[in-house]
UniProtKB/TrEMBL annotation:
This is spermidine synthase. InterPro entries: PABS (IPR030374), PABS_CS (IPR030373), SAM-dependent_MTases_sf (IPR029063), Spermi_synthase (IPR001045), Spermi_synthase_euk (IPR030668), Spermidine_synt_N (IPR035246), Spermidine_synt_N_sf (IPR037163). It is an enzyme of class 2 (transferase). GO terms for cellular component: cytosol. Keywords: Polyamine biosynthesis, Transferase. GO terms for molecular function: spermidine synthase activity. Gene3D superfamilies: Spermidine synthase, tetramerisation domain, Vaccinia Virus protein VP39. One of its GO terms (biological process) is spermidine biosynthetic process. It catalyses: S-adenosyl 3-(methylsulfanyl)propylamine + putrescine = S-methyl-5'-thioadenosine + spermidine + H(+). SUPFAM superfamilies: S-adenosyl-L-methionine-dependent methyltransferases. Pathway: Amine and polyamine biosynthesis; spermidine biosynthesis; spermidine from putrescine: step 1/1.
Length: 306
Protein backbone atom coordinates (compact mmCIF):
# COMPACT_ATOMS: atom_id res chain seq x y z
CA UNK A 1 0.00 0.00 0.00
CA UNK A 2 2.83 2.51 -0.55
CA UNK A 3 2.00 4.74 -3.51
CA UNK A 4 5.36 6.48 -3.37
CA UNK A 5 7.15 3.48 -4.92
CA UNK A 6 5.17 3.07 -8.08
CA UNK A 7 2.67 5.27 -9.89
CA UNK A 8 -0.95 4.14 -9.77
CA UNK A 9 -1.93 2.63 -13.13
CA UNK A 10 -4.01 4.82 -15.40
CA UNK A 11 -7.44 3.30 -15.94
CA UNK A 12 -6.44 1.81 -19.27
CA UNK A 13 -9.83 0.72 -20.51
CA UNK A 14 -10.61 4.44 -20.91
CA UNK A 15 -8.76 4.15 -24.23
CA UNK A 16 -11.15 1.71 -25.80
CA UNK A 17 -10.55 -0.11 -29.06
CA UNK A 18 -13.58 0.11 -31.33
CA UNK A 19 -14.62 3.52 -30.04
CA UNK A 20 -14.19 6.89 -31.76
CA UNK A 21 -12.74 9.55 -29.45
CA UNK A 22 -12.86 13.18 -30.45
CA UNK A 23 -9.45 14.52 -29.52
CA UNK A 24 -8.54 18.10 -30.46
CA UNK A 25 -6.46 21.03 -29.19
CA UNK A 26 -9.75 22.98 -29.23
CA UNK A 27 -10.84 21.03 -26.13
CA UNK A 28 -7.63 19.93 -24.43
CA UNK A 29 -7.83 17.28 -21.73
CA UNK A 30 -11.22 15.88 -22.67
CA UNK A 31 -12.62 13.68 -25.42
CA UNK A 32 -16.16 12.52 -26.01
CA UNK A 33 -16.36 8.95 -27.33
CA UNK A 34 -18.89 6.98 -29.36
CA UNK A 35 -18.90 3.24 -29.91
CA UNK A 36 -18.32 2.40 -33.59
CA UNK A 37 -20.51 -0.40 -34.98
CA UNK A 38 -19.21 -0.11 -38.53
CA UNK A 39 -16.91 2.16 -40.50
CA UNK A 40 -18.81 3.29 -43.61
CA UNK A 41 -16.53 5.80 -45.36
CA UNK A 42 -13.06 7.27 -45.02
CA UNK A 43 -11.74 9.74 -47.57
CA UNK A 44 -9.47 12.70 -47.98
CA UNK A 45 -10.76 15.71 -49.91
CA UNK A 46 -8.74 18.74 -51.01
CA UNK A 47 -9.70 20.39 -47.70
CA UNK A 48 -10.11 17.80 -44.97
CA UNK A 49 -10.41 14.17 -43.84
CA UNK A 50 -13.97 12.95 -44.24
CA UNK A 51 -15.32 9.98 -42.29
CA UNK A 52 -18.73 8.36 -41.75
CA UNK A 53 -19.42 5.59 -39.25
CA UNK A 54 -22.40 3.80 -37.81
CA UNK A 55 -22.46 4.39 -34.05
CA UNK A 56 -24.29 2.13 -31.66
CA UNK A 57 -26.54 4.78 -30.08
CA UNK A 58 -26.49 7.98 -32.20
CA UNK A 59 -27.09 6.57 -35.69
CA UNK A 60 -24.68 7.49 -38.46
CA UNK A 61 -22.01 10.07 -37.66
CA UNK A 62 -20.21 12.54 -40.00
CA UNK A 63 -16.68 13.48 -38.92
CA UNK A 64 -14.43 16.11 -40.58
CA UNK A 65 -10.76 16.31 -39.57
CA UNK A 66 -11.51 14.22 -36.48
CA UNK A 67 -14.36 16.48 -35.31
CA UNK A 68 -17.99 15.33 -35.17
CA UNK A 69 -20.16 17.47 -37.47
CA UNK A 70 -23.44 15.70 -36.95
CA UNK A 71 -25.14 12.52 -35.83
CA UNK A 72 -28.54 11.34 -37.03
CA UNK A 73 -29.89 11.38 -33.50
CA UNK A 74 -29.15 14.95 -32.46
CA UNK A 75 -28.68 16.88 -35.73
CA UNK A 76 -32.22 18.24 -35.38
CA UNK A 77 -31.22 20.41 -32.41
CA UNK A 78 -28.47 22.14 -34.36
CA UNK A 79 -30.07 22.42 -37.81
CA UNK A 80 -33.45 23.61 -36.53
CA UNK A 81 -31.99 26.20 -34.17
CA UNK A 82 -29.38 27.69 -36.53
CA UNK A 83 -32.11 28.09 -39.16
CA UNK A 84 -35.29 29.06 -37.35
CA UNK A 85 -33.71 31.44 -34.84
CA UNK A 86 -32.93 33.87 -37.71
CA UNK A 87 -35.80 33.05 -40.08
CA UNK A 88 -38.54 33.22 -37.43
CA UNK A 89 -37.21 36.60 -36.28
CA UNK A 90 -38.16 38.46 -39.49
CA UNK A 91 -41.35 38.65 -41.54
CA UNK A 92 -41.42 37.06 -45.00
CA UNK A 93 -37.80 36.04 -45.55
CA UNK A 94 -37.40 35.66 -49.34
CA UNK A 95 -33.72 35.31 -50.21
CA UNK A 96 -31.53 33.15 -47.98
CA UNK A 97 -27.82 32.30 -48.24
CA UNK A 98 -26.19 29.35 -46.48
CA UNK A 99 -22.38 29.29 -46.08
CA UNK A 100 -20.97 25.82 -45.29
CA UNK A 101 -23.74 23.40 -44.35
CA UNK A 102 -22.78 20.97 -47.14
CA UNK A 103 -24.71 18.15 -45.49
CA UNK A 104 -27.97 19.85 -46.54
CA UNK A 105 -29.63 19.93 -43.12
CA UNK A 106 -29.93 23.70 -42.97
CA UNK A 107 -31.42 23.67 -46.49
CA UNK A 108 -34.01 21.15 -45.31
CA UNK A 109 -34.98 23.53 -42.51
CA UNK A 110 -34.99 26.70 -44.65
CA UNK A 111 -37.32 24.95 -47.08
CA UNK A 112 -40.02 24.76 -44.38
CA UNK A 113 -40.50 28.52 -44.87
CA UNK A 114 -43.02 29.06 -47.64
CA UNK A 115 -42.17 32.78 -48.02
CA UNK A 116 -38.66 31.87 -49.21
CA UNK A 117 -38.14 32.21 -52.96
CA UNK A 118 -34.42 31.59 -53.35
CA UNK A 119 -31.92 29.55 -51.33
CA UNK A 120 -28.24 29.83 -52.29
CA UNK A 121 -25.61 27.66 -50.64
CA UNK A 122 -21.82 27.94 -50.84
CA UNK A 123 -19.96 24.91 -49.49
CA UNK A 124 -16.21 24.60 -49.98
CA UNK A 125 -16.01 20.80 -50.09
CA UNK A 126 -17.95 18.78 -52.68
CA UNK A 127 -17.03 15.56 -50.89
CA UNK A 128 -19.21 16.60 -47.94
CA UNK A 129 -22.19 17.07 -50.27
CA UNK A 130 -21.64 13.74 -52.02
CA UNK A 131 -21.11 11.82 -48.78
CA UNK A 132 -24.23 13.34 -47.27
CA UNK A 133 -26.31 12.37 -50.32
CA UNK A 134 -25.01 8.81 -50.05
CA UNK A 135 -25.19 8.23 -46.28
CA UNK A 136 -27.60 10.83 -44.86
CA UNK A 137 -30.64 10.95 -47.18
CA UNK A 138 -32.88 12.47 -44.46
CA UNK A 139 -30.45 15.38 -44.20
CA UNK A 140 -29.39 15.77 -47.86
CA UNK A 141 -33.11 15.86 -48.73
CA UNK A 142 -32.64 19.64 -48.42
CA UNK A 143 -31.04 19.63 -51.89
CA UNK A 144 -34.27 18.41 -53.49
CA UNK A 145 -35.99 21.75 -52.99
CA UNK A 146 -36.11 23.48 -56.42
CA UNK A 147 -35.42 26.87 -54.78
CA UNK A 148 -31.87 25.67 -53.91
CA UNK A 149 -28.75 26.61 -55.95
CA UNK A 150 -25.52 24.88 -54.91
CA UNK A 151 -22.17 26.65 -55.34
CA UNK A 152 -18.98 24.77 -54.57
CA UNK A 153 -16.36 27.23 -53.37
CA UNK A 154 -14.99 29.29 -50.53
CA UNK A 155 -17.69 31.19 -48.67
CA UNK A 156 -15.38 34.17 -48.14
CA UNK A 157 -14.79 34.65 -51.88
CA UNK A 158 -18.44 33.94 -52.70
CA UNK A 159 -19.68 36.68 -50.37
CA UNK A 160 -17.26 39.25 -51.72
CA UNK A 161 -18.90 38.87 -55.13
CA UNK A 162 -22.49 39.19 -53.87
CA UNK A 163 -24.16 42.52 -54.81
CA UNK A 164 -25.01 44.74 -51.82
CA UNK A 165 -28.32 44.20 -50.01
CA UNK A 166 -29.09 40.89 -51.73
CA UNK A 167 -30.22 38.65 -48.88
CA UNK A 168 -32.85 38.77 -46.13
CA UNK A 169 -30.93 36.19 -44.11
CA UNK A 170 -27.48 34.56 -44.14
CA UNK A 171 -26.78 31.39 -42.18
CA UNK A 172 -23.15 30.44 -41.57
CA UNK A 173 -23.07 26.72 -40.78
CA UNK A 174 -19.33 26.34 -40.50
CA UNK A 175 -16.90 23.95 -38.93
CA UNK A 176 -14.52 25.08 -36.16
CA UNK A 177 -12.07 27.98 -36.69
CA UNK A 178 -9.09 25.62 -37.12
CA UNK A 179 -9.05 24.52 -40.79
CA UNK A 180 -10.91 25.79 -43.87
CA UNK A 181 -13.47 27.72 -41.77
CA UNK A 182 -10.94 29.98 -40.04
CA UNK A 183 -11.76 33.11 -42.04
CA UNK A 184 -15.47 32.66 -41.38
CA UNK A 185 -14.80 33.84 -37.83
CA UNK A 186 -12.88 37.00 -38.75
CA UNK A 187 -13.97 40.62 -39.05
CA UNK A 188 -13.56 41.09 -42.85
CA UNK A 189 -15.94 38.17 -43.35
CA UNK A 190 -18.56 39.76 -41.09
CA UNK A 191 -18.17 42.99 -43.07
CA UNK A 192 -18.97 41.15 -46.32
CA UNK A 193 -21.97 39.54 -44.61
CA UNK A 194 -23.29 42.94 -43.50
CA UNK A 195 -22.92 44.33 -47.04
CA UNK A 196 -24.74 41.39 -48.59
CA UNK A 197 -27.73 41.81 -46.26
CA UNK A 198 -30.63 44.18 -46.91
CA UNK A 199 -31.32 46.82 -44.21
CA UNK A 200 -32.80 44.96 -41.24
CA UNK A 201 -31.51 41.65 -42.63
CA UNK A 202 -30.26 38.95 -40.27
CA UNK A 203 -27.26 36.65 -39.91
CA UNK A 204 -26.84 33.56 -37.74
CA UNK A 205 -23.39 32.04 -37.38
CA UNK A 206 -22.15 28.99 -35.51
CA UNK A 207 -20.39 30.47 -32.46
CA UNK A 208 -18.83 27.68 -30.38
CA UNK A 209 -19.37 26.71 -26.73
CA UNK A 210 -19.63 28.94 -23.67
CA UNK A 211 -17.93 26.18 -21.64
CA UNK A 212 -14.90 25.87 -23.90
CA UNK A 213 -14.47 28.95 -26.06
CA UNK A 214 -15.36 32.09 -24.14
CA UNK A 215 -12.26 33.81 -25.58
CA UNK A 216 -13.29 33.09 -29.18
CA UNK A 217 -16.85 34.17 -28.37
CA UNK A 218 -15.63 37.45 -26.85
CA UNK A 219 -13.74 38.24 -30.04
CA UNK A 220 -16.69 37.36 -32.27
CA UNK A 221 -19.05 39.49 -30.18
CA UNK A 222 -16.64 42.45 -30.21
CA UNK A 223 -16.28 42.20 -34.01
CA UNK A 224 -20.01 41.88 -34.54
CA UNK A 225 -20.78 44.92 -32.38
CA UNK A 226 -18.52 46.97 -34.64
CA UNK A 227 -19.96 45.61 -37.87
CA UNK A 228 -23.70 45.09 -37.27
CA UNK A 229 -25.50 48.31 -36.40
CA UNK A 230 -28.90 46.72 -35.75
CA UNK A 231 -28.80 44.18 -32.93
CA UNK A 232 -26.16 41.72 -31.72
CA UNK A 233 -27.13 38.68 -29.63
CA UNK A 234 -25.74 35.34 -28.49
CA UNK A 235 -27.99 32.28 -28.22
CA UNK A 236 -27.23 28.65 -27.40
CA UNK A 237 -28.66 25.18 -27.41
CA UNK A 238 -27.81 21.63 -26.42
CA UNK A 239 -26.26 19.17 -28.85
CA UNK A 240 -25.09 16.10 -26.90
CA UNK A 241 -22.39 15.08 -29.40
CA UNK A 242 -20.72 18.50 -29.63
CA UNK A 243 -17.80 19.11 -27.25
CA UNK A 244 -19.23 20.11 -23.85
CA UNK A 245 -22.73 19.28 -25.12
CA UNK A 246 -23.66 22.83 -26.04
CA UNK A 247 -23.24 25.07 -29.08
CA UNK A 248 -23.85 28.78 -29.54
CA UNK A 249 -24.95 31.12 -32.31
CA UNK A 250 -24.37 34.80 -33.03
CA UNK A 251 -27.54 36.49 -34.21
CA UNK A 252 -27.09 39.97 -35.66
CA UNK A 253 -29.08 42.37 -37.80
CA UNK A 254 -28.05 45.27 -39.98
CA UNK A 255 -29.24 48.83 -39.57
CA UNK A 256 -32.84 49.22 -40.69
CA UNK A 257 -36.17 47.92 -39.43
CA UNK A 258 -35.45 46.75 -35.86
CA UNK A 259 -35.13 43.01 -35.28
CA UNK A 260 -35.94 41.77 -31.78
CA UNK A 261 -34.50 38.24 -31.94
CA UNK A 262 -35.85 37.27 -28.53
CA UNK A 263 -39.46 37.59 -29.67
CA UNK A 264 -40.09 35.66 -32.90
CA UNK A 265 -42.53 37.43 -35.24
CA UNK A 266 -42.70 34.67 -37.84
CA UNK A 267 -43.57 31.46 -35.99
CA UNK A 268 -43.63 28.19 -37.92
CA UNK A 269 -44.80 25.89 -35.12
CA UNK A 270 -48.35 25.65 -36.41
CA UNK A 271 -47.83 25.35 -40.16
CA UNK A 272 -44.87 23.01 -40.39
CA UNK A 273 -46.51 20.09 -38.61
CA UNK A 274 -49.49 20.02 -40.97
CA UNK A 275 -47.36 19.77 -44.08
CA UNK A 276 -47.64 16.09 -45.00
CA UNK A 277 -44.48 16.02 -47.11
CA UNK A 278 -42.25 17.07 -44.23
CA UNK A 279 -41.28 15.56 -40.91
CA UNK A 280 -42.52 17.71 -38.04
CA UNK A 281 -40.00 19.83 -36.18
CA UNK A 282 -38.29 17.74 -33.51
CA UNK A 283 -36.64 20.44 -31.43
CA UNK A 284 -37.52 24.05 -32.25
CA UNK A 285 -40.57 25.88 -30.93
CA UNK A 286 -41.26 29.52 -30.05
CA UNK A 287 -40.65 29.00 -26.33
CA UNK A 288 -37.23 27.45 -26.88
CA UNK A 289 -36.49 30.27 -29.33
CA UNK A 290 -36.87 32.93 -26.62
CA UNK A 291 -35.19 30.78 -23.98
CA UNK A 292 -32.09 30.32 -26.17
CA UNK A 293 -31.10 33.94 -25.46
CA UNK A 294 -31.03 33.48 -21.66
CA UNK A 295 -27.38 33.08 -20.69
CA UNK A 296 -25.66 31.69 -17.59
CA UNK A 297 -24.29 34.55 -15.47
CA UNK A 298 -20.62 33.92 -16.29
CA UNK A 299 -21.31 34.14 -20.02
CA UNK A 300 -23.76 37.02 -19.72
CA UNK A 301 -21.18 39.13 -17.89
CA UNK A 302 -18.58 38.66 -20.59
CA UNK A 303 -20.90 39.06 -23.57
CA UNK A 304 -22.69 42.13 -22.18
CA UNK A 305 -19.35 43.80 -21.46
CA UNK A 306 -18.21 43.62 -25.09
N1 LIG B 1 -24.56 21.02 -40.35
C1 LIG B 1 -23.56 20.51 -39.47
C2 LIG B 1 -24.22 20.07 -38.18
O1 LIG B 1 -25.39 19.69 -38.15
O2 LIG B 1 -23.56 20.08 -37.18
C3 LIG B 1 -22.49 21.50 -39.18
C4 LIG B 1 -21.20 21.37 -39.85
S1 LIG B 1 -21.16 21.62 -41.61
C5 LIG B 1 -20.84 20.01 -42.18
C6 LIG B 1 -19.74 22.64 -41.82
C7 LIG B 1 -19.31 22.79 -43.27
O3 LIG B 1 -18.62 24.02 -43.46
C8 LIG B 1 -18.37 21.70 -43.73
O4 LIG B 1 -19.02 20.92 -44.71
C9 LIG B 1 -17.16 22.46 -44.31
O5 LIG B 1 -16.65 21.87 -45.48
C10 LIG B 1 -17.78 23.82 -44.59
N2 LIG B 1 -16.80 24.90 -44.69
C11 LIG B 1 -15.69 25.10 -43.94
N3 LIG B 1 -15.04 26.19 -44.35
C12 LIG B 1 -15.74 26.74 -45.37
C13 LIG B 1 -15.56 27.88 -46.20
N4 LIG B 1 -14.51 28.70 -46.04
N5 LIG B 1 -16.49 28.14 -47.14
C14 LIG B 1 -17.56 27.33 -47.30
N6 LIG B 1 -17.78 26.22 -46.54
C15 LIG B 1 -16.87 25.92 -45.59
Amino acid sequence: GNNDDKELPIYESSVIPGWFSEISPMWPGEAHSLKVEKMLFQGKSDYQDVMVFQSSTYGKVLVLDGVIQLTERDECAYQEMITHLPLCSILNPKKVLVIGGGDGGVLREVSRHSSVERIDICEIDKMVVDVSKEFFPHIAVGYEDPRVTLNIGDGVAFLKAVPEETYDAIIVDSSDPIGPAQELFEKPFFESVAKALRPGGVVCTQAESIWLHMQIIEDIVANCRQVFKGSVNYAWTTVPTYPSGVIGFMLCSTEGPHVDFKHPVNPIDATCCHNKEKQPLKFYNSEIHSAAFCLPSFAKRVIDSK
